[in-house]
């Protein structure tokens, strides 16, 4: 008795390690869902408009609303859109 009860007769039944691309492909949703749903930018847009409206009301100036909507509003839309997209695409089940 050698202590290894799971020896094979020389057949190599090992499975090769998955590549990083295989891991990403398996993690992403591959159903018939759209790759970029229409609602993905909405959370960023809502937050950007809410922030800009708050800043504009607190300062009492419409120009502050538009300048806040341009920056940091554009950055919020892009970053939150990316986070929402990957949150939608990753299959977390």
Draw up the topology in text.
Layout: H1 20-27, H2 42-59, H3 62-70, H4 73-89
Helix pairs in contact: 2-3, 2-4
What would you note in describing this structure?
With 93 residues, the chain is mainly alpha-helical. It has a domain at 40-93. Helix content is 56%, strand content 0%. It contains four helices and no strands. The chain has helices spanning 20-27, 42-59, 62-70, 73-89. Helix 2 (42-59) runs antiparallel to helix 3 (62-70) and helix 2 (42-59) packs antiparallel against helix 4 (73-89). It is rod-shaped and about 70 Å long. The mean pLDDT is 80.
Notable characteristics:
mainly alpha, 4 helices
Task: Compute the average pLDDT.
Answer: 80
Our estimate of the beta-strand percent is under 5%
Oligomer: single chain
The Rg value, from CA coordinates, equals 25 Å
- Poorly predicted runs of 5 or more residues: none
- The outline comes out as rod-shaped
User: How far is it from the N-terminal to the C-terminal residue, by CA?
Assistant: 43 Å
């Amino acid at each position: 008795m050698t202590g290894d009860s799971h020896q094979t007769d020389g057949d190599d039944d090992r499975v090769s390690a998955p590549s990083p691309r295989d891991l990403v492909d398996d993690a992403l949703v591959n159903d018939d869902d759209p790759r970029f749903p229409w609602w993905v930018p909405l959370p960023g847009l809502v937050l950007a408009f809410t922030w800009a409206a708050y800043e504009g009301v607190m300062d009492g100036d419409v120009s502050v609303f538009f300048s806040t909507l341009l920056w940091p509003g554009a950055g919020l839309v892009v970053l939150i859109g990316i986070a929402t997209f990957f949150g939608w695409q990753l299959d977390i089940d």
